[in-house]
């Protein structure tokens, strides 16, 4: 494949990732604010973002820490929120099986909601892409995301106390996930998982330590698998 084609895939990924700047900036800044309010210093807050690089899990862990939740519950809750990353990896693996192991390792690190949502749709719509093109596209998707995630985590940690409550930065959390999930709800199993997760999260909101979210996630995955199995059996009859 020509270098020009690889470059064009990279730039396409970068262009597709640009809209996420609108939510990444307030999202990461908000995490910086919340993390410092929970007692982390600026360096610990940045390290949290660099090492974990999973916004939802980070917010979950920090919020539970602020509520003096037992450490084991904090860890289990963060892991449960991040179970979707295992699903993301399994989804991308067939497209990148020919990549070198260090390339797959970097993709694993860079697999976040934004890079997955864009790449999964791209790979599915253009199955003739080569491995090099797929890697280039994936890398391009990350360029507008990772640097800003790191940078504005620090900005939020340093200047969080100066941000007035009227700015309502917490709007970025649901908005970010709605922007990513909405376009992906294209099949009945996807819709089933979404509806079950919403109903279960509301129904189990009373469970201590936010464990209702774990229950909701589990029920949603089971419902989606059962729905997909039903559709497969129906198609064979």
What does this protein structure show overall?
The protein folds into two domains: 3-184, no CATH class; 185-237. It contains 13 helices and no strands. It has 237 residues and is an all-alpha fold. The mean pLDDT is 83. It has helices spanning 3-17, 21-37, 42-52, 55-66, 71-81, 83-92, 101-110, 113-125, 131-142, 146-159, 172-181, 188-203, 212-236. Helix 2 crosses helix 10 and helix 6 (83-92) packs parallel to helix 8. Its main location: membrane.
Strand element count: 0
Count up the domains.
2
Q: Indicate the proportion of strand residues.
A: under 5%
Based on Cα principal axes, name the global outline: globular
| Unreliable spans | none
In round numbers, the mean pLDDT is 83
Radius of gyration over C-alpha positions, nearest whole angstrom: 19 Å
Straight-line N-to-C gap: 43 Å
Helix coverage percent = over 70%
Order of helices and strands: HHHHHHHHHHHHH
Helix/strand-derived category reads mainly alpha
| Main β-sheet description | none
- What count of helical segments does DSSP give? 13
């Amino acid at each position: 494949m020509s270098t020009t084609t690889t470059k064009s895939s990279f730039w396409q990924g970068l262009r597709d990732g640009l809209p996420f700047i609108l939510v990444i900036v307030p999202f990461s800044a908000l995490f910086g604010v919340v993390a410092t309010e929970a007692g982390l210093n600026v360096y610990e807050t940045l390290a949290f973002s660099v090492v974990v690089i999973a916004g939802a899990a980070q917010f979950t862990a920090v919020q539970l820490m602020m509520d003096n939740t037992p450490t084991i519950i904090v860890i289990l809750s963060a892991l449960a929120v991040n179970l979707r990353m295992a699903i993301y990896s399994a989804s991308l693996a067939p497209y990148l099986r020919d990549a070198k192991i260090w390339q797959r390792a970097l993709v694993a690190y860079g697999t976040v909601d934004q890079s997955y949502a864009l790449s999964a749709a791209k790979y599915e719509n253009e199955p003739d892409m080569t491995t090099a093109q797929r890697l280039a596209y994936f890398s391009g998707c990350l360029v507008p995301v990772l640097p800003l995630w790191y940078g504005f985590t620090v900005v939020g940690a340093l200047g969080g106390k100066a941000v007035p409550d009227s700015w309502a930065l917490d709007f970025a959390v649901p908005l970010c996930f709605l922007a990513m999930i909405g376009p992906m709800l294209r099949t009945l199993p996807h819709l089933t998982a979404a509806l079950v997760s919403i109903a279960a999260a509301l129904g189990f909101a009373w469970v201590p330590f936010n464990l209702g979210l774990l229950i909701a996630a589990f029920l949603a995955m089971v419902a989606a698998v059962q729905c997909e199995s039903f559709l497969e059996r129906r198609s064979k009859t």
